[in-house]
């Protein structure tokens, strides 16, 4: 049986703002292709590829907190208190196999007295969900002013590229309680170039789709180059990688160190130890 010496070393997890993901991905890709025969681990997926921040707005009692609770916890609370100021939720979604995006979700108070607090949260959001209650006509009529406030306050490299979604909520309610037709919501959304969906935090209908639809759209705009992680803006951030282990021969290890030094030492190489295989 042949025996040869290998070197195991680890890439520590890092944040993209410390180290450029594309640089590291490029180095890692070329490394892996060069060292194919020595590759022993399968823990190469990132923890998440991107982080997107969304904000959820709309009149009080339309069901914003219930919708977010259902999306992040799989259930809605039986009794809900009005949100005071701003609340925060998070959930990971997989946009395609192995491609994860972390969603950070700001839940805002619909009550007028909190308006000045919630207004400051638009700037660092890349996605805005405007919610109305399909059984409450006034909440639909106020959607235009919520949308305008969001459009005036979102930030990022190109605020016009932020993604807006209109959500008609409480779709579980009986038809006789409905005060806003599906077609009216759809028309409003089309007119304002928004996505549209009806949801329920009682049955869970379309809850997951509402958020993933918006995440997919943000991701498409990131891919097209319209949106990107930008210093001083929290709407889109690059992801975090896992700790990774690769097993290399001594010769490959020496080559890597040489390349690593030529690249200005971008890849942290630690935990060098000898291993017999
Ligand atoms: N039938 C039905 N009721 C819902 C649904 N979602 C929420 N509710 C009810 O609507 C009421 C208000 O829900 P919240 O989630 O607190 O509303 P909110 O928009 O967060 O209100 P604020 O925090 O004051 O802005 C509660 O009584 C919920 O139980 C739903 O999908 N269907
Ligand atoms: Mg609330």
Main beta-sheet annotation: 7 strands, mixed
| Overall average pLDDT | 81
In DSSP terms (H or I, runs of 4 or more residues), the helix count works out at 8
* Tertiary shape: elongated
CATH architectural name of the largest domain: 3-Layer(aba) Sandwich
Low-confidence runs of at least 5 consecutive residues: 1-43, 267-277
* Class from helix and strand fractions: alpha/beta
**Distinct bound molecules:** guanosine-5'-triphosphate, magnesium ion
Distance between the termini: 10 Å
Count of strand segments: 10
CATH superfamily of the largest domain: P-loop containing nucleotide triphosphate hydrolases
CATH class of the largest domain: Alpha Beta
**Integer tally of domains:** 2
Structure overview:
It holds the Pfam family Ras. The chain is α/β, with parallel strands linked by helices. It is 31% helix and 27% strand. It contains eight helices and ten strands. The strands form two sheets. Strands 2, 3, 4, 5, 6, 7 and 8 form a seven-stranded mixed sheet that branches. A three-stranded antiparallel sheet has the order 9-1-10. It is elongated, with a radius of gyration of 23 Å. The protein starts with a strand and ends with a strand. The model is unreliable at 1-43 and 267-277 (pLDDT under 50). The structure holds guanosine-5'-triphosphate and magnesium ion. The site of guanosine-5'-triphosphate (GTP) has 21 residues, from helix 2. Magnesium ion is lined by residues 64-65, 82-83, 107.
């Amino acid at each position: 049986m042949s025996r040869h010496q290998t070197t195991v070393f680890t890439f520590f997890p890092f944040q993209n703002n410390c180290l450029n993901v594309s640089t590291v991905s490029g180095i890692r890709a070329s490394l892996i292709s060069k060292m194919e025969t020595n590759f022993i681990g399968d823990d190469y997926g990132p923890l998440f590829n991107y982080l997107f921040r969304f904000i959820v707005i709309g009149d009080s009692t339309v069901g914003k907190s219930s919708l977010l609770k259902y999306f992040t916890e799989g259930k809605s609370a039986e009794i809900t208190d009005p949100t005071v100021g701003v609340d925060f939720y998070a959930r990971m979604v997989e946009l395609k196999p192995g491609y994860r995006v972390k969603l950070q979700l700001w839940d805002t108070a619909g009550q007028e007295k909190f308006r000045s607090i919630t207004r400051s949260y638009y700037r660092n959001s890349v996605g805005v969900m405007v919610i109305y209650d399909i059984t409450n006509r006034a909440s639909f009529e106020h959607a235009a002013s919520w949308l305008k406030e969001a459009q005036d306050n979102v930030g990022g490299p190109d605020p016009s590229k932020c993604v807006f979604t209109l959500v008609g909520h409480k779709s579980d309610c009986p038809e006789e309680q409905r005060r806003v037709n599906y077609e009216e919501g759809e028309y409003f959304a089309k007119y304002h170039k928004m996505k549209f969906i009806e949801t329920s935090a009682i049955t869970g209908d379309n809850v997951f789709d509402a958020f993933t639809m918006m995440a997919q759209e943000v991701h498409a705009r990131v891919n097209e180059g319209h949106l990107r992680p930008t210093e001083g803006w929290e709407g889109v951030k690059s992801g975090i990688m896992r700790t990774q282990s690769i097993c290399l021969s001594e010769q490959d290890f020496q080559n890597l160190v040489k390349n690593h030094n030529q690249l200005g030492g971008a890849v942290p190489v630690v935990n060098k130890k000898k291993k017999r295989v």
